[in-house]
């Protein structure tokens, strides 16, 4: 018998997140070997009258493929998959796999080719901009290990997070999105961080289960050349299978002019992928009440209660500051007291301190109100 929590998640993905309508084509990509959720999603698509298309992906195989790939081969691969993506109305990406580091020994030059020639046209330009999409992880032993939890305990945590009442969260986000749309100056202060920028005229978008599961953020973007100061991220992050820690950026007029980490050379190689990679494409505030600690999985980490992320690379169309890049790297700063605390100011008014919203109209986003 299938776990009823998996069935509920499938119903939410198909009926709420991408809202499948009769006759719509839905591409379901499963990265990894787990099949229960995949089968449940296919069933729900059928119940809604949609057409399910399935892609099974193995990251270890893909790593081997990329090691020997040429630019011409990646272009042909992208052209083939782009045609399929253009025929899709919806996309559901389920990401599992046994080892998050499967891609770590793919040469950096091959990953740059893959990101620019495949990911950018197929996903950033077509899937993100022209389909209804949602991506999520699957609760397997590998993820439990990253979270320093038993598999059973992690599954309980996962379903609390993913089957949250996102409609309730959506309503609570209105006040923050409205405030961000009216804001000019932002200042972020934490240990090692003193950062200032403008979000005037950029807008703000709510995230409450339509694009990501788990979810819980409102995002905008800085005016491209307005960022000045330093930021010291305190959540470790994976990029192309490599772990980065203690990332610190210094900005002058929007550009990252100094970048250090536990692997400073590799970090700067990524930031040199193209001109836009040294500018910021997203600023977001996270508040999922069940996600408290980083686990090197950005779908979870960027939603951590009391966090924010400040993202080098491509801007979203909905909050477009004009930055273009093959990179979009969500990097997380947690401001709860156990991570050093910190403040966010909008137009010189304190809106969040030590991870807790202090304005009355924003208190609905604090953990006790969202659970």
UniProtKB/TrEMBL annotation:
Any one Gene Ontology molecular-function term assigned to this protein's record: aminopeptidase activity
Membrane-crossing residue ranges in chain numbering: none
UniProt-listed InterPro entries: M29_Exopeptidase (IPR052170), M29_N-terminal (IPR035097), Peptidase_M29 (IPR000787)
Any Pfam family the entry gives: Peptidase_M29
Keyword Calcium assigned: no
Keywords: Aminopeptidase, Hydrolase, Metal-binding, Metalloprotease, Protease
Cofactor(s) in the UniProt record: Mg(2+); Zn(2+); Co(2+)
The keyword DNA-binding is annotated on this UniProt entry: no
UniProt xrefs under PANTHER family: AMINOPEPTIDASE (PTHR34448), BLL6088 PROTEIN (PTHR34448:SF1)
Family that this chain belongs to: Belongs to the peptidase M29 family.
Protein name per UniProt: Aminopeptidase
Taxonomic source organism: Paenibacillus haidiansis
Phylogenetic lineage: Bacteria, Bacillati, Bacillota, Bacilli, Bacillales
